[in-house]
Design a protein that fits this description.
8-stranded antiparallel β-sheet; 2 helices; mainly beta
Length: 216
């Protein structure tokens, strides 16, 4: 088994019904701006309402000029965690790790270890999809009823940080309408998985969070 040890705490815990998003764009100083920095995590019902979509964005605030050369770090594992019995421990994981221009996906499966250490299956069950180059049409892979994507995307998060600073300082009572999008024109590297709800415990409420883990 290949072991990946969590060395950065960059997960977002949330309850999912039909739609959820979580984001911060500002992680701990040790990982801020690095190849393992998670900018936001989304989970929502798919266009096919029998499916759920998980999307993790990393390496935020990429300028258009920097995006073309931005790459996923081959030492960084992206792990979607799914708790379907509300004990706050992952029952299933979906993992993604890049190798030689492809993103390889594993799961969903019941992990042999939980918490800070992860392993990758060595049973040939992984699926690889080519990482979409910047400026190209999305390359979407499929395996059975699952769909996969990895590549650069426009940062979907909207936040007016200047106005937020004014509110915190007591100089404004609220946000402007319309506001100014601090993230306009910047990009992220995205990993997206669409999976049937039946593969993660049916249609009930789940807890889900995402982590990046670095190989030791």
């Amino acid at each position: 088994m290949k072991k990946m040890k969590l060395i950065i705490g960059a997960g977002f815990l949330a309850l999912i019904g039909l739609v959820l998003l979580a984001a911060d764009h500002i992680d701990a100083p040790e990982v801020k701006g690095g190849s393992s920095d998670i900018t936001d995590f989304y989970a929502f019902q798919g266009e096919d309402t029998d499916n759920i979509v998980f999307a993790a964005n990393i390496q935020g605030l990429l300028s258009p000029s920097a995006t073309a050369s931005a790459t996923f770090d081959e030492n960084v594992l992206i792990e979607f965690n799914i708790d379907n019995n509300d004990d706050k421990v992952e029952d299933l994981v979906i993992q993604a790790i890049p190798r030689d221009g492809k993103m390889y996906f594993f799961g969903p499966y019941n992990p042999s270890t939980t918490g800070l250490t992860s392993t990758l299956p060595q049973d040939g069950s992984e699926y690889g999809v080519s990482i979409t180059p910047y400026g190209s049409s999305a390359v979407v892979g499929s395996k059975g009823a699952m769909k996969f994507f990895a590549g650069p995307r426009d940062d979907p998060f909207f936040m007016d940080f200047a106005q937020y600073g004014e509110i915190i300082a007591g100089n404004a009572s609220g946000f402007n309408n319309p506001g100014s999008d601090t993230f306009k024109g910047t990009n992220v590297l995205s990993v997206v998985v669409e999976v049937p709800k039946s593969m993660i415990g049916g249609s009930g409420t789940i807890n889900t969070w995402v982590e990046t883990k670095t190989k030791q």
